[in-house]
Amino acid sequence: MLKAYIVYCILIVSTVAYSGMQGYVLAALFTGQGVAGRAANHYHK
Amino acid sequence: MVTAPQAPAAANKPRTAKSFSCPSCGGEITLRAAGHSLNAVCAHCGSIIDVRDERLQILQKANAALRPTLLEIGRRGKLFGTVWEVIGYTQKSDKTKQYFWDEYLIFNPYQGFHFLVQQDGHWNYVKIIKEAVAGKRGFSAVTVRGEDYKPFLRDNPIVQYVKGEFYWRVKRGDQARTEDYVAPPFMLSFEFADEDITVSQCLYVEPEAIQSAFSLPSIPRKKGVGPNQPGPPGAAKFFGVMSLALIALLVLYISMYAASANKLLTQFSANYMPADRARVFTSETLEIPKTSNIYVRSTASIDNAWAELDMTLVNDDTKAETELQQEIEYYHGYDSDGAWSEGSEVEGDYFSNVAPGHYHLTYNVDSDMLQKGFPVSMRTEVRRDVLPGSNFLWSMLLIVAIPFIVAYRNQQFEYQRWANSDFPKAGS
């Protein structure tokens, strides 16, 4: 379980490094907001 | 006619077996540890017989039907590199007769006698140790073979059922005084009978190991937490890894912050009136020299209202469009708790992963203030290659969450372990 956590941390830090270099905002990957090729998350008042 | 259990493979057969007839029912009784055993239980009628007495005196007449056990008498299995044969079985209960457990006496001609103890699916491999336990005063912590044991439970277990043969005289109703101490995966059990003190060291064994060793088709699942069941990995190691990961994240953030251009591309202001038919704005050309993000920070003159900007980033070279909806909300007031506010007049959002090229930004504005007849002023600032702090914030939360979950689970595990002891932990 500890090994899995070490791998988990490495993946997170690597993802942050890669996303930073590519100009990605990680939260936007889930919402699609402002990401080229992804539908915007429209909603209306 | 029922016969005594057959000895399995000849290669494993102990050379100490001996047979005789039960003085009560005449059934054949085979002793598997002849020369060691003091009494045996007839497998046919359940009478307990003194096998050291030449007249084979009956110590206790059968008063309970013979019942099957998970490990039957005569069953063999290889555990910790030794072939063991089950030769005796006792079922015991605590003095309240609420809790029951099984004790199997196992024998190997070269290793002697050991026990396998099972309660609620938790198994222990038990051997009697002969060394004196130094420093034992009352029911307090003791150290044996380098292990520090904590006092766990005092009891007066009662023998409820016996089957097989034993190297001591045992019968139903026998009672002793015991003290158990734990240092997972070990447990130390003191048994006080008359002047004798017997000390047993128990090692926790996973039920799957017992199932495999004795080739059992199935084995009862564990219920709850055993007294000396090893806990999950300590949270301290997780917190150590977490610290390293957070340091790595901090170093990464500082280096990426230093490397980010955070360059202002344009800023503009616009006023929108309720009567405006088109509330659209188009920026000047934005030049993006390398793949990066674009950060749009907007400020709206709203008061207890919302404003919505539907933005489109258009690549002038490829005509590709990327959409972003920006919501600005700002509400405030007073209630019984005093002043409150929610949201802000300022909102910042990102276009991610923007390829090099020339772009322009368009947006149209809507707001409930405009719908109610009030003007709205907008001020917008556009930057490129801005390091998003949210990436680090979310990553930190994901990294920090696991050790706390592990610590909580460990705490619950220990609560369950000690709930059955004389020292239950608070909050269990």
Topology:
The complex is a heterodimer of chains A (about 45) and B (about 425).
Chain A: H1 2-22, H2 26-31
Chain B: E1 18-21, E2 28-31, E3 39-41, E4 48-50, E5 58-60, E6 76-79, E7 82-93, E8 100-108, E9 112-119, E10 122-129, E11 142-144, E12 147-155, E13 158-166, E14 177-183, E15 186-193, E16 196-205, H1 207-213, H2 235-259, E17 263-272, E18 280-282, E19 286-288, E20 292-300, E21 305-315, E22 321-335, E23 338-343, E24 346-354, E25 357-367, H3 368-371, E26 376-384, H4 389-419
Antiparallel strand pairs in B: 1-2, 3-4, 3-13, 4-5, 6-7, 7-8, 7-13, 8-9, 9-10, 10-16, 11-12, 12-14, 14-15, 15-16, 17-26, 18-25, 19-25, 20-24, 20-26, 21-22, 21-25, 22-23
Question: Can you give a write-up of this model?
Answer:
The complex is a heterodimer of chains A (45) and B (428). With 45 residues, chain A is an all-alpha fold. Helix content of chain A is 60%, strand content 0%. Chain B has helices spanning 207-213, 235-259, 368-371, 389-419, and strands at 18-21, 28-31, 39-41, 48-50, 58-60, 76-79, 82-93, 100-108, 112-119, 122-129, 142-144, 147-155, 158-166, 177-183, 186-193, 196-205, 263-272, 280-282, 286-288, 292-300, 305-315, 321-335, 338-343, 346-354, 357-367, 376-384. In chain B, strand 1 and strand 2 form a beta hairpin. The longest helix of chain B has 31 residues, at 389-419. Classes of the chains: A mainly alpha (45), B alpha+beta (428). The A-B interface holds A 1-2, 5-6, 8-10, 12-13, 15-17, 19-29, 33-37, 39-43, 45 and B 232-233, 237-238, 241-242, 244-245, 248-249, 252, 256, 291-293, 306, 308, 313, 320, 322-325, 349-355, 366, 368, 385, 387-388, 390-392, 394-395, 398-399, 402-403, 406.
In sequence order, what are the helices and strands of chain B, one letter per element?
Answer: EEEEEEEEEEEEEEEEHHEEEEEEEEEHEH
Structure summary, number of beta strands of chain B: 26
The average pLDDT score of chain B comes to: 87
- Based on secondary structure, the structural category of chain A is mainly alpha
Class from secondary-structure proportions of chain B: alpha+beta
Strand content of chain A: under 5%
Major β-sheet annotation of chain A: none
The percent range for strand residues of chain B is 35-45%
What gyration radius of chain B follows from the Cα positions, in whole Å?
Answer: 38 Å
Give the termini distance of chain B in whole angstroms: 54 Å
Distance between the termini of chain A: 46 Å
Q: Fraction of residues of chain A in helices? A: 55-70%
Q: How many beta-strand segments of chain A?
A: 0
User: Which regions of chain A are unreliable across 5 or more consecutive residues at pLDDT < 50?
Assistant: 38-45
Largest sheet of chain B: 14 strands, antiparallel
Number of helices of chain B: 4
